[in-house]
């Protein structure tokens, strides 16, 4: 019997599709290049520095953002400090909005299920983001707090200990196959992929809205 659900945060509950556009606009105003071109540049630089970061020894995401903006600062001759651009990025994280179907978390709570949020993110923006975007949950686990990243099985073990449930009593929902789904599968919990962005990935337990979760609960 399912007694709890573990959710990834960004890309699962909170829409991060335009994460880089605000900082691209800030830099565009500073140096005069088109924001859409800068957004693409920032994404490519992000992918370079964040590639497989979750498989490396833990360090806060801010350290990776320092690498990202240091490269952008040198390549684009940016005038402000690296910390300035990181802080602006973190403001964007805080301002991101939840998906409309997050309302179904209220029904999940009404049914008596526990809700945990498990995120590979820094507390610096996760905590104010959750204060601003109010939806029900019982416990928040971040990589920043545990010094562990998904898909490390130890972070799943830590989460289950906190919500006091066993593997057979929970399901895990995430949008990233390599980090979320493989992490959950390898740990031994039912893992469901939510596709917020179209892709060719075929995975049997795939949903497109949180409303579809209820078929796994009952």
Automatic annotation (TrEMBL):
Transmembrane segments: none
Pfam families, per database record: HAD_2
Keywords, in A-Z order: Hydrolase
Gene3D superfamilies assigned: HAD superfamily/HAD-like, Putative phosphatase, domain 2
InterPro entries: HAD-like_sf, HAD-SF_hydro_IA, HAD_2, HAD_sf, PGP-like_dom2, S-2-haloacid_dehalogenase
GO MF terms, alphabetically ordered: hydrolase activity
Coiled-coil zones: none
Full protein name: Hydrolase of the HAD superfamily
Organism: Marinitoga hydrogenitolerans (strain DSM 16785 / JCM 12826 / AT1271)
């Amino acid at each position: 019997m399912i007694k709890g659900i573990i959710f990834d945060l960004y890309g699962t509950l909170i829409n991060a599709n335009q994460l880089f556009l605000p900082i691209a606009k800030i830099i565009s105003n500073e140096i005069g290049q088109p924001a859409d071109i800068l957004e693409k540049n920032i994404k490519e630089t992000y992918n370079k520095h964040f590639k497989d970061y979750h498989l490396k020894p833990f360090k806060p995401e801010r350290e990776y953002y320092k690498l990202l903006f240091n490269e952008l600062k040198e390549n684009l001759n940016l005038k402000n400090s690296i910390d300035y651009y990181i802080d602006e990025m973190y403001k964007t994280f805080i301002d991101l909005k939840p998906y409309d179907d997050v309302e179904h978390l209220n029904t999940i709570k009404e049914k008596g299920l526990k809700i945990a949020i498990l995120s590979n993110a820094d507390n610096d923006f996760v905590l104010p983001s959750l204060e601003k975007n109010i939806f029900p949950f019982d416990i928040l686990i971040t990589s920043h707090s545990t010094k562990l990243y998904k898909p490390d099985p130890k972070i799943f073990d830590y989460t289950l200990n906190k919500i006091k449930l066993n593997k057979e009593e929970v399901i895990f929902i995430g949008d990233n196959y390599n980090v979320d789904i493989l992490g959950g599968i390898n740990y031994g919990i039912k893992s469901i992929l939510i596709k917020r962005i179209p892709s060719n990935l075929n995975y049997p337990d795939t949903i497109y809205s949180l409303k579809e979760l209820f078929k796994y609960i009952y």
